[in-house]
Design goal:
275 residues, alpha+beta, 27% strand
C-alpha cells in the first residue's frame, strides 16, 4: 500500500495542520502561510489539493508550484511563495487565478509559427490516469458535490458560509470552494517542465528547464489571499479493491494474453493501462 500524501510539519507560522496533516488552514492574516508536501514528488506524480474554505476581504488566491528547498532543513521561510520564495531561486511558483490559467493557447500558437511540436496534454481523455506512483480514475481530478466543509470548526465572522459550497458542479471557477488544483513535473530530455491541472484539465507547461536531477522537488502551496483552507486529495494513499484485483491478475497473466480474458472491454483496458 502506498503511503498517504501529507503536508510537511514545517510550514508558515499562520498555518495549522488538521486531520493527520491532510488539511492546511490559515489562522489569520494573508501571509506566512507557505506549506510543503511531506516528501519530494516523483516525476509524473500529481500532487492535488482541494479548496475547502475561502475568506472574504483579501485579494489574490492560492499559489502552487515546486521547490528544491528542503523543508526538512527548516530554512528561514519567507512571508510569501510569490515573489519571495521564487526570488530565493530553485522554486517555480505561480498564482492561480479565476480565469486565464491555461498556457496551451499561447504556446500552441508560438509552436505553430516556429514549426515546433505543439505541447502535449499529460492528462489525456481516458477514464484512468497512469503515473509513476500508480493508476487512478481521472474523475478524482475533478470537483465533487459537497454540502459542507469536512472540518467542524466554526466559521470566522467574515468567512464564506459553508452553505455556499452546496451542489458544487464542474463549472466552478479555479479559485472557488471545491476546486481541485494539482501540480506535476514531467521529464523532457535532461530537464523537466511543470504543469498545473485544474479541475481535471491540464493547463500546459508553465515552467520549463527545471533541473530535476540536481535536487528533489517538493510541492509548495501558499494558502494565500481569499483561499483559507486546502485539503490534499488522496490519489495514491489507499489501495482500492479494484487495484488490488488488478495487481493479482497482472501477476498471473502475461500482458499479451490480457485481451483474451473473459472480461468486459473496460476492465481489459484498465488491466492493460500500464503497458
Amino acid at each position: 500500500m502506498m503511503p498517504v500524501t501529507r503536508f510537511h510539519s514545517y510550514h508558515g507560522q499562520n498555518i495549522r495542520l488538521f486531520d493527520d496533516s491532510l488539511v492546511a488552514y490559515r489562522t489569520n492574516s494573508f501571509a506566512h502561510a507557505v506549506s510543503f508536501s511531506e516528501k519530494p514528488l516523483k516525476p509524473g506524480e500529481i500532487f492535488l489539493v482541494e479548496i475547502e474554505k475561502n475568506e472574504r476581504g483579501w485579494s489574490g488566491h492560492v499559489r502552487i508550484g515546486l521547490t528544491q528547498h528542503d523543508p526538512g532543513t527548516r530554512f528561514d521561510l519567507p512571508q510569501y511563495a510569490l515573489p519571495d520564495l521564487s526570488n530565493m531561486g530553485k522554486s517555480w511558483v505561480f498564482a492561480v487565478t479565476k480565469t486565464h490559467n491555461s498556457v496551451y493557447a499561447e504556446q500552441d500558437l508560438d509552436a505553430t509559427l516556429q514549426g515546433e511540436d505543439v505541447p502535449k496534454c499529460i492528462v489525456g481523455n481516458g477514464e484512468f490516469i497512469q503515473t509513476s506512483r500508480g493508476t487512478f480514475k481521472s474523475s478524482l481530478l475533478r470537483p465533487v458535490r459537497r454540502s459542507k466543509p469536512s472540518l467542524s470548526d466554526s466559521e470566522l465572522e467574515n468567512e464564506v458560509p459553508s452553505s455556499s459550497i452546496a451542489e458544487v458542479t464542474d463549472n466552478i471557477l479555479p479559485t472557488d470552494i471545491g476546486s481541485r488544483i494539482g501540480v506535476v513535473y514531467v521529464v523532457r530530455g535532461e530537464a523537466a517542465e511543470m504543469h498545473f491541472i485544474i479541475n481535471g484539465e491540464d493547463q500546459g507547461p508553465c515552467a520549463r528547464g527545471i533541473p530535476h536531477q540536481e535536487s528533489p522537488l517538493w510541492a509548495v502551496v501558499d494558502v494565500y489571499g481569499t483561499t483559507k483552507q486546502v485539503r490534499i486529495v488522496q490519489l495514491y494513499g489507499v489501495a482500492s479493491l479494484q487495484n488490488v484485483c488488478r495487481d493479482v491478475i497482472l501477476g498471473h497473466t502475461k500482458k499479451d494474453k490480457l485481451m483474451y480474458l473473459p472480461l468486459p472491454r473496460k476492465v481489459k483496458e484498465f488491466l492493460r493501462y500500464d503497458y
